[in-house]
Design a protein that fits this description.
Length: 513
Amino acid sequence: MSGQPTMAAIRTAGAVSTVGELFRARALIQGSAIAIEYDGRQLSYAKLLERVRRLTAALASLGLQRGDRLALLSRNRPEYFEVELAAGNLGVITACVNWRLSPRELAYCVELVSPKLLIVEPDLAGSLPAVDGRSTIELGEPYERLLQQHSDRDAPIVAEPEDGLVILYTSGTTGLPKGAVISHRAMVTRSLMFSSELNISYRDAFVAWAPMFHMVSTDHGLSTLLRGGTVVVIDGFQIEPLLAAIAKHRIGWLVLIPGMIDAFIDGFKAQNAQVKGVGLCGAMADLVPPHTLAEVTALLRAPYVNSFGSTETGLPPATRSLIGIGEVPTRLSKQQSGFCEIKLVDADDQEVADGMPGELALRSATLFSGYWQAEETNARDFRGGWFHMGDMFRRNADGTLDFVDRVKYMIKSGGENIYPAEIERVLMSDARITEAAVVRVADPRWGEVPVAFVSSTDKAVTEADLIGLCRRDLATYKCPRRVQFIDFGEFPRSTSGKVQRHELEARLTAACR
């Protein structure tokens, strides 16, 4: 019939929008609303859209095309979002480089993605590898001049939903970082899940204090801009700007990560901070002492997010359950996220029975598109059409999930499997313990045995006290053979706040030589 739309046209019209298209649609209908606050300045949606359009034209004039990469090396600042959105309009992938890396790691991450363009903060430019013929733009005056040289007229967005939007580098326990490619499709779905799983409203603001090369600020920041909320950008963990933000804004999810919560609590109390409204707080409850969970939720009058997700997966597989205000949890069982499928499998990829540990495998539209230039790793991790996370869980009879540990960090002692996280949870059940990490050390009789590193607020706590606590709650073979007390600040951490066990293990190995 003449004029009848074809099935191909219908499918195209129903396709997932790109991040750039959704941001533009939002900015056009609420141009006067505040998109970003930073260092006392405000940027409206209309102004942000204008700057993104100018930068899109500038990047195109430099020859960047769909499928190219640019590397962004910057601390937290509004331009981070401008670059991600403008590059995304062209189908160009922004590689978000961790400026804290060593020169060797930094050079590796940049060269891995073969960027056509580098965008850097001036004082970080000297840390980048020198490559002839590669364009570089410094943030600040050079960047602003470039924007003013180009039009703010609207132009077609050429990206497709499955195009990469950003590359976020994962901090593995061994070897060099891997570059996880997050597509427009994955980012849009992640944005929807913030609302559906955590009840975050378009009226809620987000505080982007965590490094913007990390998923916390990238995922949540872009999602907030797609919803129409305000992103408060802070350059790292700074207690005064953070407290000012929660006094001024209604925050949907105040992300607090292990390693900084005690400092946040101390600052909150010292300043008798005010809270306009926090819907949810925290992340990675498994890595926080239970008494600390109770204290921070009581101060903020907000439940704690008992999360389990990753750079590769977004909120899934298990970021749905909450820890109540003032609650000292005795278990941290998690609920499976919506809009995903999971299964727990053994070493042969056969599903395990309830109550047995198995590696979690996932299918979801939030999933990343694989690691950049890592065919063997992708083939292994996506085998059978499922993404294998490398994390061990047990499924309980009620359907909840208990985190066991990383597959790769398991202690084999006398033929028994020991998961360090299980011991760490027992140690941190003592209110005097502020951090605990269990590592393996070689043993002539058992092959490997566990050793615990612990920090405490009470100097009277002894090694015997803690080993006794473990003997009460754990099988004898799981108990640490010794406990080493160190200061809280001595625990080596990733940018997400996780203790890096391999560095503690290396410290033990060096001490034994």
